[in-house]
Design goal:
- This protein has 51 residues and is mainly α.
- It has two helices and no strands.
- The longest helix is centred in the N-terminal third of the chain and has 21 residues.
């Protein structure tokens, strides 16, 4: 019984990890660092002033 329980526990844990990987990610936006935001803002400003 104990061996069977341990094997089942391992299989369930692996299945849970696999299903978590396949599950869609949350709708929360991906983190962008402050430096990257400043860089993107500068590029956007250069494009609008360059036209």
């Amino acid at each position: 019984m104990n061996r069977r329980k341990k094997i089942n526990q391992l299989l369930k844990a692996n299945a849970k990890k696999a299903s978590a990987k396949l599950a869609p990610r949350s709708s929360k936006p991906r983190y962008i660092s402050k430096a990257d935001r400043a860089k993107l803002e500068a590029e956007a400003g250069a494009e609008t002033s360059g036209e």
